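Thread: Newbie trying to understand structure tokens

Hi all, I'm a second-year student working on a class project, and my supervisor (Dr. K.) asked me to get a predicted structure for one chain before our next meeting. I've only ever worked with sequences, so writing a 3D structure as a token string is new to me. If someone could post the tokens and maybe explain what I'm looking at, I'd be very grateful. Here's the chain:
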Amino acid sequence: MAMGSKDSSLLTMTTMRVTSVSIAALIALRYRSIGGIPAKTLPLLIFIGIADFLANFTIGIATTKGLVSITMVLGSLFPIVTSVMAFKFLHERLHRVQYAGIVFAILGISLISI
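---
Reply by user tm_fold:
Sure, no problem. This is what the structure looks like when written as tokens:
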């Protein structure tokens, strides 16, 4: 992302997204299924895709215009935030090792950012 964003962050992120959506569409056409996803959740999935695109776009911009150290520290929080949101909103249970992983990731991020 950093290399492509030097020339054009928007083109880089758009190419990444078009590629992943095209591959997913080809798989869906091949198997004639969208994986059992109900139609009522498609708007939510589209919103999530747009949010992911914007997050990657802003990281691409930040790697060329801002402090890369801060960008990467904040970007590395992504899996932790995803796990916590899955716990909070989807009521998914986390195993002890996952809690430990979250704690160690936060500790690691804080040590790196010192």
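A couple of things are worth pointing out once you decode it. Residues 17 and 49 are 9 Å apart (CA to CA). The chain has a mean pLDDT of 82. Feel free to ask follow-ups in this thread.
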